[in-house]
Design goal:
127 residues; mainly beta; SH3 type barrels; 5-stranded antiparallel sheet; SH3 domain-containing protein
Length: 127
Amino acid sequence: MNDSTNCSERPTNTPKPAERVRFHLSGHSRPYDPTRQAIRPDLADLAEAEHHFAPHYAKPADWLASADTILRASADSDAEERQRLKAGDRFALLDITGGWAWGYAVDGHVVGYVEAAELSPAGRDRA
């Protein structure tokens, strides 16, 4: 008597291969204001997910300006000034790269870059 099982039979409890789901983007791209909406080619504020596509979304973290500083249009100390932040002003942080923090000033929702050394997480005791 041969106790081998037939390899061509699929056990009934094995899941079926996943069906391919195809989708496409449709409609027109929506314009946005880069000074008021936190959207970059690689990352966007999670609040924009319903209206704008980005490869990644981030939930803003609540940070504070630890000193008076400048919110700039790009990660460059010579970039256009968008807004001045005073010590204690809230900043919604979305990304830190190369010493620059990207996000928006909570007061006025102005998007831009701040030198990361000029910020500290909200709620953390500052010496």
